[in-house]
Design a protein that fits this description.
This protein has 398 residues and is mainly beta. The N terminus and C terminus are likely disordered.
Length: 398
């Protein structure tokens, strides 16, 4: 056997293809598969037809190879110029379970008009035996550990003490309410209502803009811990409240938490929102445990009406009308004038009398009527001889 025979597991290499003037196809004699049983072999295809042509590339199996192992890298149809050479990659991917053996791959080239068909040389490759994975060393210890854990879990669930029944959320028997006169400066009390079961009560005072119950915001928080007698001992808190250990079976928190109505509450509503946290036995209440939230009706705080302001009426007698108007405006009064005819724009008559009298105390905005007399007859514009008295009013009240 020659050295060439030893290099080719399929025996002597294929005789060189003898196409008429068509395509020259060359490639390596053999290729070695990688550890993953795959490889890429490259063929060179040269156009010797003497014309530009488009070709179809077909990888073909040989020996024990299967067509499903072979695939082209790139398009299967490609244009080739005159005397141009294509580099064609063929990927070999042998399945892991394929048996060992000698195999080969070749490349066939066909002109698009089927006038030229050339079979290329075969590239040999050896398919190694499938790798049989042994049993991992850690498998048996892992199985033993899993069995031990299962047995231990079974024993725990058999001998563990029974869990207490889940604690139900408190039930509200009488809804909470706000008591007292809702006036600025007054103290309102929180009637937290009545609840079943053992619970920790969290009371939030809320301000409701315009009295609407849909936009209430917290303004004060207290925590009421029910005692065994049903009364409550409030503790101020800025958070959701501390834990406690109430022992009342049916606690009535009562009216214990107060809130002083401020000027910011005027024109708005006030209410309380009570959150009842369930407590099991002597255990502490848990904020994330069962709870019930109930809000009281909204009570409206009326607007504060300021008392009317008063002023002392000045003495307008002897003043001209312009000065009297300025004095009335400074005293927050309205000034009205009685005349016996129209007054010319350039005239500034004198005041000869007034009502109410000077020095009297009157509310802001009071109308003071003054009698004015023209300085001379040119101040009057007579429309007719019988001109009725008319009132000119100057607003000075604020």
């Amino acid at each position: 056997m020659t050295s060439s025979d030893q290099r080719h597991p399929l025996g002597p290499p294929d005789p060189a293809p003898q196409p008429a003037a068509g395509f020259s196809i060359t490639g390596p004699a053999e290729v070695t598969l990688g550890a993953d049983r795959s490889a890429v072999t490259t063929f060179s295809v040269t156009n010797v037809t003497g014309r530009p042509v488009r070709v179809r590339l077909r990888p073909q199996p040989g020996g024990s190879a299967d067509a499903g192992w072979l695939s082209l890298v790139g398009d299967s149809e490609r244009p080739v110029a005159i005397a141009a050479t294509l580099s064609v990659d063929v990927k070999i991917a042998v399945p892991p379970t394929a048996p060992a053996g000698a195999a080969a791959v070749r490349l066939d080239v066909v002109a698009e008009d089927n006038t030229e068909v050339v079979t290329g040389q075969s590239v040999a490759f050896i398919v190694p035996a499938p790798v049989v994975k042994g049993r991992p060393r850690w498998l048996i210890p892992a199985v033993i550990a899993a069995v031990v854990l299962l047995v231990a879990a079974g024993v725990y669930f058999v001998v563990k003490p029974s869990s207490p029944p889940p604690v139900a959320a408190p039930t509200n028997l009488v809804p909470p309410a706000v008591t007292g006169a809702p006036m600025v400066g007054a103290t309102l009390l929180a009637d937290k209502g009545s609840w079943t079961g053992q619970q920790l009560l969290l009371v939030r005072w809320q301000r409701c803009p315009g009295g609407a119950a849909t936009a209430c915001a917290n303004i004060q928080t207290t925590v009421a811990v029910p005692t065994s007698t049903g009364s409550a001992s409030p503790t101020e808190s800025a958070s959701a409240g501390p834990t406690a250990s109430p022992s009342s079976a049916a606690a009535d928190a009562g009216m214990t938490d107060g809130y002083v109505v401020s000027t910011a509450d005027a024109g708005n509503g006030l209410r309380i929102e009570v959150t009842a946290y369930a407590v099991a036995g002597d255990a502490d209440a848990v904020a994330g445990g069962p709870q019930t939230i109930v809000a009281s009706p909204v009570v409206l705080v009326p607007q504060v009406v300021a008392p009317p302001q008063t002023t002392v009426v000045p003495n307008f007698s002897g003043l001209d009308f312009s000065a009297a108007s300025a004095a009335a405006n400074g005293a927050h009064l309205n000034l009205g004038a009685l005349v016996d005819g129209p007054i010319a724009p350039t005239c500034n008559p004198l005041v000869s009398g007034q009502n109410p009298r000077a020095g009297s105390s009157q509310p802001w905005g009071t109308l003071v009527t003054v009698l004015i007399q023209p300085v001379n007859r040119r101040c009057l514009i007579f429309v007719t001889r019988a001109v009725p008295l008319q009132t000119l009013q100057v607003n000075g009240g604020k």
